[in-house]
Design goal:
Shape: globular
Structural class: mainly alpha
Oligomer: single chain
Largest sheet: 2 strands, antiparallel
Strand order of the largest sheet: 1-2
Number of strands: 4
Number of helices: 20
């Protein structure tokens, strides 16, 4: 843990802080159907054209039921569209390698994964997907699923900010504006930057290279196939939209997907950009900027705790290697991208699992037990630490509602959140939101543990094998998409159950969230009194962190104890290799 890592961490957090207010102010304009932005001259005609073709009146607002129905229909059509493309891939254009169509279970898994902003990949992209599938079936969802997440966060914020109202905005206007004014321009600029760093963006056929050993006549050496394709456009939106996944199987560890240290740094920063701005958007919309900054500070504090623990664990290395006389001065380098080193691997792993991104530049399966514990816990907390585009903010707001409820119990008063009475109905909906992910993760993991199909996919026995299964279902239910990478998940049972886990993690968690927003919007704002619990400052921040840890982390503690925690004690307390 050297000074260079600390400097980079300070630079990362400083730049994120500096970008938070500008991004938040811009989000206020974008999420206002009548808001004006500097992109209006270029985008306003396209926006009007889309409304006219689709028959959308952007001024007409929807209640929570209509908004929920719009999300469900939009997502269902998108998922079926993607499934059809993957099943028909061999008959579609832009397929220079003549890849075949995907089988039904893998097509279902992939369509569900990308529809839900998960981007779990049970396949190697460069050996499975045509350029058409990458651009139309997958990259399209990177935009739409990100827009849906931000729109839902905006709905919950509107529910808190409004009073005595039934409506929460217009779903169709929200996703059109988010796509045209936010995601498209950011992705275009970022893609051009990535191309400037050496990332590919072409439609060329794959290159066949002859290795030196083959030229020298060494037996058993085959030509090397080097992937090409439209990578920069997909990588840009997968980071900005916290989608994750990758054009290539190695993801951001591949030199084409992550060419330079600068591209590595800005890819990490881009993951947090919109989620961080949403905290300022929250404060501005509810008329309490101190509250928005307190939420940002809580997220930053938990983020720092995670990245320092992961960095320390990986820097300390594996004591088993030291016992064998192997110098561990460089720490645990297994599974790391040598260009970036341990700190950047730990930072990337923490950022991508704090957010619902899932892109990786190192293999989490090769982390030390405590190093692997950090990304696993980040996901199981609900990825509320800045989080995905939208999902992080609305997940944190659920914990805020639980926090003010607990605070109200402690002082013997009806809980209030920014002047809104938090009653039993809101608390029940918040608990349902939390329990949906818990039941999905633990239910599917338990099923896999006792099933032959679940055990057949393991690359490791014992606690590490259990961690592989727990991480997979946590990642899918949390709509993250990263993996421990030791699990052979491209089987009918795994593809099907992991696909359903992604759907549960997206839509069953939205099911209580939208009526929660509707309930809050109907309430009147009560003036603050001497007994009102302030939702800013140190006291609130400490109580919010405690609620997150008690409700989030302790829920999964028994499962974590059977996986990475016991593996850590085995690694440090036994001399026998395992």
């Amino acid at each position: 843990m050297d000074i260079f890592g600390w400097i980079q961490l300070a630079l990362f957090l400083g730049l994120l802080l500096a970008l938070t207010k500008p991004m938040g102010l811009y989000l206020v304009r974008v999420l206002d159907a009548q808001g004006a932005t500097f992109l209006d001259p270029a985008m306003k005609p396209a926006e009007r054209f889309i409304y006219r073709v689709c028959g959308v009146d952007p001024v007409h607002e929807q209640d929570w039921r209509q908004y929920a129905l719009s999300i469900a229909l939009f997502s269902l059509v998108g998922m079926l569209f993607t499934y059809a493309i993957l099943r028909l891939q061999s008959f579609l254009p832009l397929n220079p390698r003549q890849f075949g169509s995907l089988n039904p279970d893998l097509s279902f898994n992939t369509a569900a994964s990308f529809t839900t902003n998960t981007n779990w990949q049970s396949y190697a992209g460069e050996t499975t997907m045509s350029y058409f599938s990458q651009m139309v079936a997958l990259t399209l969802h990177n935009f739409t699923s990100a827009a849906v997440g931000i729109a839902v966060a905006a709905v919950l914020v509107r529910g808190v900010a409004r009073q005595g109202m039934q409506t929460l905005g217009n779903f169709w206007a929200d996703i059109v504006r988010l796509t045209l004014y936010l995601l498209l321009p950011l992705s275009l600029v970022f893609a051009l930057f990535l191309v400037s760093q050496g990332m590919l963006q072409n439609f060329q056929n794959y290159i066949t290279a002859t290795p030196v050993e083959m030229k020298a006549g060494v037996d058993g050496v085959a030509p090397q196939i080097i992937a090409q394709g439209p990578m920069a456009s997909q990588v840009a939106i997968k980071m900005i939209g916290t989608n994750g996944g990758g054009f290539t199987n190695a993801n951001a560890a591949h030199p084409y997907e992550n060419p330079t240290p600068l591209s590595n740094f800005l890819q990490m920063l881009s993951i947090f950009l919109i989620p961080s701005g949403l905290t300022y958007y929250l404060g501005r919309m509810v008329g309490n900027q101190r509250h928005g900054w307190t939420v940002w500070a809580v997220m930053a504090l938990v983020f720092l705790a995670g990245v320092t623990l992961c960095w320390w664990a990986e820097s300390a290395g594996n004591p088993r290697l030291a016992a064998l006389g192997v110098d561990a001065a460089d720490g645990n380098m297994e599974g790391k991208e040598l260009r970036f080193g341990i700190f950047n691997s730990a930072l990337f792993a923490t950022v991508t699992t704090d957010a619902s991104c899932g892109a990786v530049n190192a293999m989490h399966d090769s982390f030390t037990p405590l190093g692997g514990l950090v990304p696993l816990v980040n996901i199981e907390l609900g990825e509320i630490i800045f989080g995905g585009v939208g999902s992080g903010l609305y997940g944190m707001m659920v914990f805020i509602i639980l926090t003010v409820f607990l605070a109200g119990l402690m002082v013997g008063r009806t809980p209030e959140y920014l002047g809104k009475k938090v009653e039993s109905g809101e608390v029940k909906l918040a608990v349902l939101f939390v329990m949906a992910a818990v039941l999905s993760v633990l239910g599917f993991t338990g099923w896999a543990c006792v099933s032959a199909w679940g055990q057949a996919g393991l690359a490791n026995a014992g606690p590490h094998g259990f961690s592989e299964m727990l991480y997979a279902y946590s990642s899918c239910a949390g709509n993250n998409g990263s993996a421990f990478a030791g699990l052979s998940a491209n089987t009918p049972w795994y593809n099907t159950t992991l696909g359903f886990a992604t759907l549960v993690g997206r839509f069953l968690m939205l099911l209580p969230l939208l009526p929660l927003a509707g309930s809050l919007a109907r309430k009147k704002i009560v003036p603050a009194s001497g007994g009102s619990f302030p939702v800013h400052g140190v006291t609130f921040a400490v109580l919010l962190v405690a609620t997150v840890l008690i409700v989030g982390a302790l829920t999964f503690f028994p499962a974590l104890a059977l996986g990475p925690i016991v593996e850590h004690f085995i690694m440090t307390g036994s001399s026998a290799l395992y």
